[in-house]
Predict the structure.
Amino acid sequence: MGYVQANLMPNEAILARAKPSLSISVLFVHILLMFVYGIGFITILFPIVRHLTSEMAITNKRFVAKSGFLSRKVVEIPLQQIESIEVTQGFIERLDKAGSICVQGTGGKAETFKRIRYPMEFKKAYQGLLYSSNS
């Protein structure tokens, strides 16, 4: 059970989940660095640990994101306070079906989450919830 599942409020349900991408291209770059620069096995562990210890979700009440292994960062924004969700994808990220998600809350700073798997599906889940509640 992840952080989001363990911290649901009463009558709250998860509508969409996202995790950092563990794509072949990211792993390839780390393996290449390991062999070319002799950085060592530790470089390949960073994307794996990030993938295993980070999660984000949209529930019927809020946006929740948690990241970190030794230290933890948790972002929670009620749905009514989300101004926008922006998705940015470069060429390689589009091939890997990954991208960055930037969530802007009212009166707060924008929170950006990089190399997220299937970011457009995550944004579409939010938009579907937003438009179904406005109808």
User: Anything to note?
Assistant: The first helix runs from residue 3 to 6. Strands lie at 14-18, 55-59, 62-67, 73-78, 82-88, 98-105, 111-117. Residues 20 and 116 are 4 Å apart (CA to CA).
